[in-house]
Amino acid sequence: MATSTPVRSAWRALTGLLAVTAVLFGINALGVYVFQQSSWTPELALDLQGGTQIILEAQTTDGGDPTAEQLDQAVTIIRQRVDATGVGEADVASEGGRRVVVQIPGEADAETRERIEATAQLQLRAVLFAGQPANTFVGEDGQTTPFPTADPALPATPTVAPTNGSDPAWITPALQAQFQAYDCADPDNDPANAPADQPLITCDASQTVKYILGPVELDGTSIDDATNGVEQNSGRWAVNLNFNDEGTEVFGQISQRLYGATPPLDQFAFVLDGSVLSAPSMNGLILDGNPSITGSFTQESSKALADQLRYGALPLSFSVVSSDTVSATLGSQQLQIGLIAGLIGLALVAVYALLQYRMLGFVIIASLAVMAVLTYVTLCILAWRMGFRLSLAGVAGLIVTIGFTADSFIVYFERIRDELRDGKSITSAVEDGWSRAKRTIYISKSINILAAVVLYILADATVKGFAFTLGLTTAIDILIFILFTHPVMQLLARTRFFGSGHPLSGMDPEALGAVYRGRAQFRAPVATAGASGRTARSRGEAQRRQTIAERKQAELAAARRDGADRRAAGKGDEN
Questions:
Q1: Is CB count within 10 Å lower at the N or C end of the chain?
Q2: What are phi and psi of 317, to 5 degrees?
Q3: How many Cβ atoms from other residues are within 10 Å of residue 276's Cβ?
Q4: Rounded to the nearest 5°, which phi and psi values hold at 104?
Q5: Boundary residue ending a domain (452, 484, 499)
Q6: What's the CA gap between 286 and 487, in Å, rounded?
Q7: Is residue 398 in a domain?
Q8: End of a domain among 116, 137, 159?
Q9: Are residues 301 and 342 part of one domain?
Q10: Residue (of 32, 560, 113) closest to 324 by Cα position
Q11: What pLDDT digit, counting tens, does each position of 541-555 carry?
Q12: Across 557-575, average pLDDT
């Protein structure tokens, strides 16, 4: 005899769940044994594990304190940089009016430190002169021309007012002397805090080219977005910029001025913290506000720079005051308390399930166990791939989900019982109960996920862990219902124990006040006093569980029967 369709679908669902579980464990196993970047335990956040603390101090040109607005903007940008690295549950806050304290769970890697410590003050300056450290001009053809000597006692300001940022009138004899004396390798030469309205002497990052640059004409605040990618023509990695409306207009004017000028006056330097990232020639008119920064970039370095610039230029320069290891703010004791609370919640749900639903309660317990396994391995994968770390708020989200999951089981099992009271067989009750219960379950879970998403977007960083685990476990809960709970009920309904409505099964028709009793057996009227008492109790239980609509429908049907009986009796009297 061929297997029925519900049984086949149940086994397919369970097989799918087994495949999903195997895939998740396989992915994490790759991270552990192949890439050696994952673990079989979820990563803990700063409040439970401790981590690295980096203290940055603001540097201003006049030596005074920065404004509160500047410091708040810096905190926001640094927090965005940390989030871009995939580090979860980091804490960034201002301290003392001129410091920013960054706390990261675990050990901060070099890339994360670089993103945090880089001030990323991007300036766009026209190139007035480009030379080697030996003070010779470097042309595009590779030819060099000696830089003229000058008397350092000559005035430092131009004798003729420059007309724009590319005007050679900016180069005074005194500036020539400073250029000759400038040593790229000298740590005392710090061009990061040079005045924006004056020329700048600086070098590139490799310290192989020395520049005289004009005043700042644009800065990083004009950038709306920055991405990295490979140039189609050259195959080099580049950082692609997108200016805002004001920046687009100014850069378009600059490109018109530089395009076709004599080298090096056709070059425009992108300066990051006083160091020249790239000084490309203006090879065309760029009026759409989408220039590119090219240079000796790798995929990693171009992405790091793009992330920094995408989140805006810091309004201040910062120096690293200290970088230390910090202990957990809450510690293992609070984690143990949270886990104990979760176990108590699970135990209470299990006790309630067994008392209310008898052996059906083990279906609830098994579903929660499967859900716990999938959630655990998913958290391990997310820690590897997304940098997610479990905080105490995240543990609270896991505990709250236990109650939401129990609500779903109650909805499903009560719908099955309602179908049994209507006289349906247990197999039909399971299918029809699922058809009606799943709509309610899907709506409820959708609201939970929507609330978690809104909370994650709008809430403070300390609450994001709660929102994330709440949304994650709710999604897994839906998966468990589809691939485990309902298929298991489909199979149990066809066993002798559950299918015959055993009193301990939780689906005893007599205890539920149902008309149907077991496999194709209907309750017959019994005249004994004891049986009459049980029947009365069963009817009372059935009446108690009826909905208002069902009661009205039953009353209407009874009224119709009474009317029909009276009409029949009237006809009999006439005869």
A1: N
A2: -95, 145
A3: 26
A4: -120, 135
A5: 499
A6: 62
A7: yes
A8: 116
A9: no
A10: 113
A11: 445 544 444 555 666
A12: 63
**What is the structure's pLDDT at 149?**
44
Round to whole Å and give the CA distance between 400 and 346: 11
Assigned domain for 2 exists: no
Q: How many helices (H) and strands (E) does the chain have?
A: 17, 14
Closest alpha carbon to 56 in 126, 103, 21, 11: 103
| Residue 537 structural domain | 524-574
Look at residue 148 in the predicted model and tell me its pLDDT: 45
In angstroms, the CA 13 to CA 2 distance is 19
pLDDT tens-digit readout, 191-200:
876 888 999 9
Q: What is the CATH number of the domain that holds 77?
A: 3.30.70.3400
Specify the higher pLDDT residue, 563 or 538: 563
CATH of the domain at 201: 3.30.1360.200
Q: Which segments of 361-472 are extended strands (E)?
A: none
Same domain for 360 and 490? yes
Distance CA 312, CA 224 (A): 8
Q: Are 421 and 374 within one domain?
A: yes
Query: The pTM is what?
Result: 0.58
Q: What pairing do the DSSP bridges indicate for beta strands 144-146 and 136-138?
A: antiparallel
CA distances from 569 to 556, 558, 564 (A): 20, 16, 9
3-state secondary structure of 201: strand
Q: Specify the pLDDT at position 19.
A: 96
112 vs 158: CA distance, rounded Å: 43
Tens-digit pLDDT profile for residues 390-436: 888 888 888 888 878 888 888 998 898 888 888 888 899 899 999 98
Amino acid at 101: V
Are 136 and 250 contained in the same domain? Answer: yes
Q: Cα dist. 66→71, 81, 94, 98, 190 in Å?
A: 7, 21, 12, 6, 20
